[in-house]
Structures are given as structure tokens and as C-alpha cells.
Design a protein that fits this description.
Blueprint lengths: L6 H5 L14 E2 L13 H6 L7 E6 L16 E6 L1 H9 L5 E5 H7 L3 E10 L6 E5 L10 E4 L5 H13 L5 E4 L25 E5 H9 L4 E3 L8 E3 L2 E4 H9 L3 E9 L4 H20 L8 H5 L3 H9 L1 E4 L2 H14 L5
Parallel strand pairs: 1-3, 2-3, 7-8, 7-9
Antiparallel strand pairs: 4-13, 5-13, 5-14, 6-9, 6-12, 10-11
């Protein structure tokens, strides 16, 4: 599969499934809710008479695109999920591999084997952003809405606010707090209403789009008729972590179910390595279709991807251990 063959994959990025019939990789429709629509993807695939199937989680964020260009093969099936959903599917034995949120990987270590790949950033990430009405130092007791998609970023935010800044905010999942969103998608992010919140944490492409638009609109207490207040402050959590620890932050790590045959694990590793090498050699071909979608120029999208580290190095491993130690007092 050449990079040129990936055009249809990238163009279909905003759909619920990968649209590339020429690819050998299978696809399962994106579940609407965690472990909701797809009760057992393993059974669905086995019904396709593929007893050696391997279900690979796919994060539908721009920063994860470099992993999937060459992820093809007769046994690999892609399951689009949010980071939080991916951890929940794995815990239910419904997923075999993927770029797991770091927090979820900690709870999966007994069954999953760490690979050499990750999604990490140093000094800035641009897609894990706290949008706030006030300076971060003034968020003590503040009501902060948290996207339902995150497992690790919410723990990072909690750690930063409580341990670095000495604050005690109220963190609430947006879906549980009466969030009103006409269309929770990239195209309408600038018109979202977040009633009663002093700040909101978004991740992935929604955060990237919010930064491109210059901030979000947060409704003042959700009272009809009151003007919406623009978020005046945006905080990149990777930057806050870097300033504090002088370490990269690892948002996700690739891991694979330890019980899988060694030849399958080796093939998966090879496919991921080939994908990364292809993007490194020609990053422009990997971002076709994103420029208009995110409101960014092509060179901006490429620069965004260049800000990530996709291989686990010494500093990334040190960062993982540091984060693990620091969050122990805040484990729920």
C-alpha cells in the first residue's frame, strides 16, 4: 500500500468508518456510546469466519493518523473509539490492541504488553486545552466541565490544578451536567454553549479547532438571554506539565494483548513502524482533507503533527513513571 493509496482513507476521516474498500483492513462502525451500540465486536468479526481476527482501536484524532496508514493485513480490524471508550472496551475483553490512554494502560498492564509507540508531546500539544474565562490561578472552587472523551487528560488537569497551583476546583463530566450542544462537531464548536462553567477541558480535534477559532463561547450560568462570554484564556496542559517537570507528557501508549501469538504482535509492530516512517518521509500526503476541516493551512497541520513524539524513548518512559507516582494520591 503506497502513501498515494491513503487519500481515500484520509478523505473519509470525518465519517464513522474508514472508507477504503481496497484496503485489507476491516472496519466496525463507530459506537455512539461506550460499549453501547457494539456489544461484542469480537463476536461480530468471528461471524465473518476470521478466527484469527485482531481488533485494533483507532482514535479518530488528527494526531493519531500517522499510525494507521499501513495498518493493513488479513487479520486486523479497525474499531474507531474515543480514548475513554478504548479503555472500557479493553477492560471488557473487546479490544486486542491500540493507542490506549495512559491512565487506562495502567489498569491494563496485567493483560496488555507495552509496545514501543506512544503519543507524546514536549512543551506544547495544542489539542489538550483548558478554555477558561479567568486566569488559571483564579480557578479555586471553579466549576470546570470535562469532555467525556478523556481518561488521562482529566487526571493531568486535576494533578496540575491541585498539586502545582494548590487549587480545589469542581470537575464535572460535560454529559452529566446539562451540556447544551446543537452539534458536538468541529464545524459548530464556535457556537457551543457551556452553561454555568468557568472553564472547559477539550481534547483532540475539538480542542485544536477551538484554538484555531481563538477560543470557545461559554454561556453565563445558562440563563436565557444573557450574553455568552468568550473564553479569554487557553491553557495547553502539555505546556503546564513541561514548565513544571521539564519532561514530555505521554498521553497514550500503544499496547497489545499479551496472549496474542508472537507473529501477530510482530506484524502489528512492523505495520505501525512502516506507517510512521511513511509519514516522516512525506507528511503532506498524510494530512489531505484536514486543512478545511480544522480551519488550518496545510503547513500548520504538518507542523502540528511534527510536535508529537510517536516512539517511546528514555524521557518518555521517565515521564510515564513520574506521572504514575504523582497521581497516586488522586486515584479515584
Amino acid at each position: 500500500m503506497r502513501i498515494a493509496d491513503c487519500k481515500s482513507w484520509v478523505a473519509g476521516y470525518d465519517n464513522s468508518e474508514i472508507r477504503n474498500p481496497k484496503s485489507e483492513i476491516g472496519t466496525i462502525r463507530n459506537p455512539k456510546s461506550a460499549i453501547g451500540t457494539i456489544r461484542n465486536p469480537q463476536s461480530e468479526i468471528r461471524n465473518r469466519n476470521d478466527p484469527k481476527s485482531v481488533i485494533v482501536g483507532k482514535i479518530n484524532y488528527l494526531n493519531a493518523v500517522p499510525f494507521y496508514l499501513y495498518l493493513t493485513g488479513p487479520h486486523f480490524y479497525s474499531l474507531p473509539l474515543s480514548p475513554r471508550q478504548m479503555g472500557e472496551f479493553a477492560k471488557e475483553s473487546m479490544l486486542d490492541a491500540g493507542p490506549f490512554s495512559l491512565i487506562d494502560y495502567f489498569s491494563l498492564e496485567d493483560e496488555f504488553q507495552l509496545m514501543d509507540f506512544c503519543i507524546a508531546a514536549r512543551d506544547q500539544v495544542r489539542s489538550v486545552i483548558l478554555f477558561s474565562k479567568k486566569p488559571i490561578e483564579e480557578l479555586d472552587g471553579a466549576r470546570i466541565g470535562i469532555t467525556t472523551e478523556t481518561s488521562t487528560s482529566v487526571r493531568l488537569l486535576e494533578l496540575l490544578l491541585k498539586k502545582r497551583y494548590g487549587l480545589q476546583p469542581q470537575l464535572e463530566r460535560l454529559s452529566d451536567c446539562g451540556l447544551r450542544i446543537a452539534d458536538y462537531g468541529l464545524r459548530s464548536l464556535d457556537s457551543d454553549s457551556f452553561p454555568g462553567y468557568d472553564a472547559v477541558l477539550l481534547i483532540g480535534d475539538k480542542a485544536l479547532k477551538g484554538m484555531a477559532d481563538g477560543g470557545l463561547r461559554i454561556a453565563d450560568c445558562g440563563i436565557k438571554g444573557r450574553p455568552q462570554l468568550e473564553t479569554r484564556y487557553q491553557y495547553d496542559l502539555a505546556t503546564l506539565w513541561w514548565e513544571w517537570m521539564r519532561l514530555p507528557f505521554v498521553f497514550a501508549v500503544w499496547s497489545v494483548r499479551a496472549s496474542l501469538p508472537e507473529n501477530i504482535k510482530s506484524e502489528l509492530h512492523q505495520r505501525l513502524e512502516e506507517s510512521l516512517e511513511a509519514v516522516e518521509q512525506n507528511p503532506g500526503r498524510a494530512v489531505l482533507g484536514y486543512r478545511h476541516r480544522l480551519g488550518l493551512e496545510e503547513n500548520e497541520v504538518i507542523e502540528y503533527l511534527k510536535g508529537f513524539f510517536y516512539r517511546l524513548g528514555e524521557k518518555e518512559r521517565e515521564a510515564i513513571n513520574t506521572f504514575r507516582t504523582l497521581i497516586l494520591p488522586f486515584q479515584h
